[in-house]
Design brief:
The protein has two domains: 5-118 and 301-329, Medium-chain alcohol dehydrogenases, catalytic domain (Quinone Oxidoreductase, Chain A, domain 1); 132-271, Rossmann fold (3-Layer(aba) Sandwich), CATH 3.40.50.720. The radius of gyration is 20 Å and the shape is globular. It has ten helices and 15 strands. The protein has helices at 47-54, 124-146, 164-175, 190-196, 204-207, 228-236, 260-265, 279-292, 295-300, 310-318, and strands at residues 5-13, 19-27, 36-45, 70-77, 88-92, 107-110, 115-117, 156-158, 180-184, 200-203, 219-224, 238-246, 268-271, 302-306, 325-329. Helices cover 30% and strands 27% of the residues. Helix 1 (47-54) packs across helix 10 (310-318), helix 2 crosses helix 3 (164-175) and helix 2 (124-146) packs across helix 8 (279-292). Strand 8, helix 3 and strand 9 (180-184) form a beta-alpha-beta unit. The strands form three sheets. Strands 3, 4, 5, 6, 7, 14 and 15 form a seven-stranded mixed β-sheet that branches. A six-stranded parallel β-sheet has the order 10-9-8-11-12-13, with helices on both faces. It has a two-stranded antiparallel ribbon with strand order 1-2. By secondary structure, the chain is an alpha/beta fold. It binds NADPH dihydro-nicotinamide-adenine-dinucleotide phosphate. NADPH dihydro-nicotinamide-adenine-dinucleotide phosphate (NDP) is lined by residues 46-48, 132-133, 136, 160-166, 184-186, 189, 204, 208, 225-226, 247-251, 272-275, 317, 320, 322. Pfam families: ADH_N (PF08240), ADH_zinc_N (PF00107).
Length: 331
């Protein structure tokens, strides 16, 4: 049975429009009117959650908001859906934690179409070590594959490599047999990145500097979480017929580039979105994560925190101080 009162991190706007985050005791009657009731086991902390909790940018679209764009848990009541009480389910994206209440609560009500059954071979905690960041990393790898990039094509470079998306991308690519170059701004993460399988480490300062329209080609593929001049450089340094998967804006949302990489080197720039990603591709990506991400690596790329620690961890992710993935324990 469900407890009468449970914990949630609730964001409210004060009179000056500032975001205030506090742990509150909620009851079932406070939850949104959605069909499926889930007892949440774990959530995770993504860059977007950091933005929501710290009130950076316009992530939260409705107030009050329970943030947390990812959750894993057990169905308590499936409503009229195909889900049954006891089913283990994962939710990432769909504007949950932005427009709809999300994972930073011990119970949540959600729509069945947002849910994916917890894939075989992945535990609940591992699914949140993966979370939106890991799903996005997998979708980026699949985007490179769609562009015809294989381990024989040459080196694949990952920017923001020590972050959530970047670290899972490095681990996935290395496991799949790619030679991986990792771009990071933090020297303290070099050993960590090598342990994930990076063969080469490049400095964020050097790679994030404005490039010429075309530079010496050196990358068969690229996964970019940073945007701005970094993405411009990765395009300018692409091999002929290289693919660049762009998923993030940790550095800048702008894209200073020219048509040169596209018209002279046949370069493909593929955008990657995990939020509205169609169910079939999502299920495929989760399957691939279960098979392609080494569990030992998965265990090494996460730290587990309590709900009470989320505000400080949110500030840390905004300051670029988080290494790998942060899992939030709601049990
Ligand atoms: P993290 O904060 O965990 O990682 C981002 C990394 O980028 C940091 O660890 C740091 O890596 C690097 N970085 C931070 N600030 C800067 C800067 N000013 N200039 C250059 N590099 C910087 O975030 P996530 O991995 O969760 O997300 C990464 C990006 O991807 C974000 O922009 C996020 O919004 C986006 N995203 C997009 C999704 C989609 O569906 N398209 C889904 C998930 C995330 P290092 O220290 O190694 O340099």
């Amino acid at each position: 049975m469900t407890e009468t009162a449970f914990k949630a991190l609730v964001l409210r706007q004060d009179d000056e429009g500032k975001t205030q985050a506090a742990i509150e005791q909620l009851g079932q009657q406070d939850l949104p009117d959605e069909p499926v009731l889930v007892k949440v086991d774990y959530s995770s902390l993504n860059y977007k959650d950091g933005m929501a909790v710290t009130g950076t940018g316009k992530i939260v679209l409705k107030w009050p908001m329970v943030p947390g764009i990812d959750l894993v848990g057990t169905v308590v009541d499936g409503g009229d859906s195909d889900y049954q009480a006891g089913d283990k389910v994962v939710l990432t994206g769909w504007s949950v934690g932005e427009k709809y209440w999300g994972g930073y609560a011990q119970y949540q009500r959600v729509r069945p179409e947002w849910l994916v059954p917890l894939p075989a071979g992945i535990t609940a905690i591992q699914s949140m070590a993966i979370g939106t960041a890991g799903l996005t990393a997998m979708l980026c790898v699949m985007a490179l594959e769609d562009g015809g990039i294989t381990p024989d094509s040459g080196t694949v470079v990952v920017s923001g490599a020590a972050g959530g998306v970047g670290s899972v991308a490095v681990a996935l690519l290395a496991k799949l047999g790619y030679r991986v170059a990792a771009i990071t701004g933090r020297e303290s993460t070099h050993d960590y990145l090598k342990s994930l399988g990076a063969s080469e480490i490049l400095s964020r300062d050097e790679m994030g500097a404005r490039s010429r329209p075309l530079e010496k080609s050196r990358w068969a593929g690229a996964i970019d979480t940073v945007g701005g001049d970094m993405l411009g450089r990765l395009l300018a340094e692409s091999d002929y017929s290289g693919t660049v998967a762009a998923c993030g804006l940790a550095g800048d949302f702008k894209l200073p580039t020219t048509v040169m990489p596209f018209i002279l080197r046949n370069v493909r720039l593929q955008g990657v979105d995990s939020v509205m990603c169609p169910a079939a591709r999502r299920i495929e990506a989760w399957k691939r994560l279960a098979s392609d991400l080494p569990q030992s690596m998965l265990d090494s790329i996460n730290q587990v925190v309590a709900l009470e620690q989320v505000p400080e961890q949110a500030a840390a992710i905004m300051a670029g101080q988080v290494q790998g993935r942060v899992v939030v324990d709601l049990q």
